[in-house]
Structure formats: structure tokens, C-alpha cells
Specification:
single chain; about 300 residues; TIM Barrel; Alpha-Beta Plaits; 2 domains; nine-stranded mixed β-sheet; 13 strands; globular
Length: about 300
């Protein structure tokens, strides 16, 4: 039995692999993408979220905080994260759920039983379980145990990955994973370091190795205006994927649905302006990929 931190279980997902799926989100990620829509999944351990819109300024949390990490200002709770030791007393005494933890420690057996509740929907739709994050490889032993349990039960397994991890880990997963949703965010390494905080060398190499293993992969590109959508970026994407034999790619248009989460987690959202992927840019992207024999799918859905 292994243990791992999860921060969400999302049922009836239709964009995380084939059919109707239950998506499990694991904590921890080595990348720090500027536009990340799950910042509560970046830290490997649990962390405290502050929902100011729920706070009524009652001060119950302040009274029980032994480290004086909490205060009330302008009728709303304020958290000093450097003082907080995540004891949880404030969460227990918050009557309006203004304070909550992101991250729950569970066993593989518990999680397996939880997702198996949806097996009727998997069977009827050709769906299954998707393990996402964060980056699932950050909790590798927990991930490996889960995919083995699901595979043994005959449940379709998808792993949603950034590709950033040791090849040996991918090698061990291949036997049990039916599909990898594989994000490629930039080909230019220097730009990748700027916007993701790490080199993409291992990401590109791992994709090449997975292709050699005859593993089913759905490449996906989150397209961020001003970051990775100029003509050279698009050409590099198309050339790289074509060289590996891909004939289809998911283009995920930028959205800022995670912006509010950064306030809750006390993190900085680095993209300040409102970004929109124009129709003209969508046409240009499609043309560049078609030149290399690759069709694009806008959004996370997969072709039949």
C-alpha cells in the first residue's frame, strides 16, 4: 500500500481522454508555467487556501492560531504563510469555509475504490481514469501503484504529463498506461526556461523515446498569445511533431480560469493582461501544421 497527496477528483470529464472519465489530480509539479491553471497543484505537500469571498471576518481562525499567522484586515482574513505551520486548527474552526486545505493524503487502495464507483460510466462510454496534476511523476510510487491497480481491473488508464521526469519512470509506466496526454509548451529551450522555469531537453527526449516504445500519445500544445504563438514557435512545433510521425495535435487556447486560485494560494500570476487567441491566429496555426501533414483539434477532445 502506498500513499499520495491528491487535490481533486473530477468526475464526468470528457476532455481528459476517450469517453467519460474520472480525473484524479496529484500534487506536485517541477514546472512553474506562467499560466498554470492549477497552482494549488504545484506544491508537493498540502497547502492552505484563503477564500476571501467566503470570509465574514468573525476572527475564529485568529483566536486558535498559536503562531499568530492570521489576522483580520478590512473585515477579511489575512494569512502570513511564513508563520503558518499548516496545523489545521484554523480550518477546523472556520464556519464559512473561508480557509481550506488543498491536498489530501490518501492510500492507493482508497483511491482505487473511489474511482471504481464510476466504472459503469467507463464501460458504457469507453472511458476510464485519467491521472493528472501537477505532474503525476512527482509522486511516482503512488502513480505506478495506481496504474497497476487500474490496469489489472481492465480500466482504461490515461496519464496527463508535462513529460518532465526520468525516462526510467516512463519506461515502467508504459506497460500499464493506455494513453499519455503529453504537453509540449515550447521547442525553444531558452524560452522554455523563462516561462516554465526548467529546460525542455528531457521533455522532448522522453517524447521521442515513448514514440519508439509504440506507446499511444496525444500531443497537446497550450497556445499562449505572446509566449509561444509566433510563427517560428508554430513552425518548430509542427516540424518536431511531424518528425515523430504525429498526424494530429490538440491546441489548447489560453484561458485565465486559474487566476483567482493564485490569490487563494498567495502566488503571483505573471500574465497580467487579458489574452485572446484570435481567429486569424487559429487559421495561421492550422495552416502551418497542415503543411507538415498534421491536423489540429481545438480544445482537449480526441478524434474518434
Amino acid at each position: 500500500m502506498t500513499e499520495g497527496y491528491i487535490f481533486n477528483i473530477q468526475r464526468f470529464s470528457i476532455h481528459d481522454g476517450p469517453g467519460i472519465r474520472t480525473t484524479v489530480f496529484l500534487k506536485g509539479c517541477p514546472l512553474k508555467c506562467w499560466w498554470c491553471h492549477n497552482p494549488e497543484g504545484q506544491f508537493l505537500d498540502r497547502e492552505l487556501l484563503v477564500f476571501k469571498n467566503r470570509c465574514i471576518g468573525c476572527g475564529n481562525c485568529v483566536k486558535v492560531c498559536e503562531r499568530e499567522a492570521l489576522s483580520i484586515k478590512d473585515g477579511k482574513v489575512v494569512l502570513d504563510r511564513e508563520k503558518c505551520n499548516l496545523c489545521g486548527k484554523c480550518v477546523e474552526n472556520c464556519t464559512t469555509r473561508g480557509l481550506e486545505f488543498a491536498g489530501k493524503l490518501v492510500t492507493d487502495e482508497w483511491l482505487f475504490k473511489e474511482v471504481k464507483k464510476d466504472i459503469i460510466f467507463f464501460d458504457q462510454s469507453g472511458g476510464g481514469v485519467t491521472i493528472s496534476g501537477g505532474e503525476p511523476l512527482m509522486q511516482f510510487e503512488f502513480l505506478l501503484s495506481m496504474v497497476k491497480l487500474l490496469n489489472k481491473e481492465g480500466i482504461h488508464v490515461t496519464v496527463d504529463t508535462s513529460g518532465y521526469g526520468e525516462w526510467d519512470k516512463f519506461k515502467q509506466l508504459v506497460e500499464y498506461v493506455d494513453l499519455f496526454l503529453y504537453d509540449i509548451k515550447l521547442i525553444d529551450d531558452e524560452k522554455h526556461k523563462k516561462y516554465m522555469g526548467v529546460s525542455n531537453e528531457i521533455i522532448l527526449k522522453n517524447m521521442q523515446k515513448l514514440v519508439n516504445e509504440k506507446t499511444k500519445i496525444a500531443p497537446r500544445i497550450p497556445l499562449i498569445p505572446g509566449v509561444n504563438d509566433d510563427i517560428e514557435d508554430i513552425k518548430q512545433f509542427a516540424e518536431f511533431l511531424a518528425s515523430l510521425g504525429f498526424r494530429e495535435v490538440n491546441i489548447l487556447p489560453y484561458h485565465d480560469f486559474g487566476r483567482e486560485k493564485y490569490i487563494r494560494t498567495g502566488k503571483e500570476y505573471k500574465i497580467q493582461e487579458k489574452l485572446i487567441l484570435s481567429e486569424d491566429k487559429k487559421t495561421i496555426v492550422a495552416e502551418q501544421f497542415l503543411k507538415k501533414g498534421i491536423n489540429i483539434i481545438l480544445g482537449g477532445g480526441l478524434s474518434k
